[in-house]
Design a protein that fits this description.
Number of domains of chain A: 2
Number of strands of chain A: 7
Oligomer: heterodimer
Strand content of chain B: 5-15%
CATH superfamily of the largest domain in chain B: GAF domain
Number of helices of chain B: 9
Helix content of chain B: 55-70%
CATH class of the largest domain in chain A: Alpha Beta
CATH architecture of the largest domain in chain A: 2-Layer Sandwich
Strand order of the largest sheet of chain A: 2-1-5-4-3
Order of helices and strands of chain B: HHEEHHEHEEHHHH
Strand content of chain A: 15-25%
Distance between the termini of chain B: 44 Å
Chain lengths: 276, 239
Amino acid sequence: MRSDNRSARVQVLVAEQAARHGGRVGVADVCTAAVAALPVGGAGLSAMSRPTKAKAAASHPLCSTDDISEQLEELQLTLGEGPCVDAFLHGSAVLTPDLRSGRLQDHWAVFADAALEAGARAVFALPLQIGAISPGVLDLYADVPTVLDPDQLADALAFADLATLLLLDARIDASAPPVNTPAAERDFEDLGGYRAEIDQATGILTVQLGTGIDEAFVRLRAHAYMRGRRLADVAADVVAHRLCFAPDLTRNDDPTRNDDHDQPDDHDQPDDHDQT
Amino acid sequence: MMNQQLLAKTFVELADNLVADFDLIDFLRLLTDRCVGMLGASAAGLLLADRDGELRVMAASDERVRLLELFQLQSDEGPCLECYRTGTPVLVTDLTREVERWPRFATAAHRSGFASVQALPMRLRDEVVGALNLFRAEPGPFDPAGTLIAQALADVATISLLQQRTTHRSTILNEQLQAALNSRILIEQAKGKLAERRGVDMEQAFTALRGYARSHNRRLSDVARAFIDDSEPLPGLAV
């Protein structure tokens, strides 16, 4: 494939931000790197979730690079309207070059005025998503009318993709013993050619584990990290049923426990494990 | 031999899909299926460039051709890549003669049972956004009339991207392609879940999801999301 890999470049920019504060790479680093790389004044990121049978929709701000970004995040979550809310609901980027356009002021009657008051003029909301996995939204703002050109938009989307993986990986890091591979060296590039197997395996794990899609993806990646295997290879094993995961009945209190087991050539999947 | 009636029926079907609130992935799959049914191809695949200009398999008429397309991307050689990079059609009447040109691809294609291929560019003004690929089991020249129709189908696929763009109010092509890729991911996730739950293969799972979407007049990606999120009953699909 091509060598001018945008994702790799964006990963380096974000890793450089993390190196400045000497900590692990996190979503806050994505925000600061995006602000440095793009014609925007600030960035903020909110975790969001859809309502399910089990629980109501929830959202909370995770980080922001400045006061205006912080206000924009809180405004949208409080009002329940704005580019970030639309980006999350529709699963596509919402690009607002100028909030003072009349049409937008009608569309987000309260938000548009409040955002202008806060000092924002252009707002770009990029959903964090991998198919049905959508843990939040990355918001960028500028204090003057701004249009992102295709190259800048592609960069912004790459920042959002990295933020998605970091946000999901934070769940592995929170529940697992330290993983040998630093985040920066992990298999982020895997979301390429063999993507379909990874996505299919994620869907399969929702059934095997009886969990939601986010958790299934986190467990798939965690399995790959802990065994030092490529995500695509683990996914191919899951799709071919060479590897099965078992529901974690003890809740995830001891992730080192070997709760998934290899079953070479076992094609007889038990059909009676109906978890839903 | 081209069947005029089938041709007319196909374009009516494609146009019908485009004027409704259509699902891009579903539409592209329909298009590859019709290349097989109407143009005598053994299999067809459609690739689109993502925001980095890297090709992704967006639709394939069967699993065999999907894997071959993936192999082609991975080994970075083959007619579809050449077509995309040059923006011009690539016709290969006998793949066994192209072993020097594409050593890995020619071998893999032969192993998959394909002897000839034509790759047609999807062009949008001065930009090449992807390629449509028709594979045949037999070597030999391509019917020029069939090639014209195949190119028309590739153009219809390009138009469908634009159409999708206007219905989603997005003004930038790469953002639209990104959204299309995401709905592809969504559908793969749903296929995995349904296949595992029913103990069927991925192709059967796809057919069931698409059948449900069609019979309930819904977009495939909406059905896929509702199925994954368990947010609706979906009688007959979610048991």
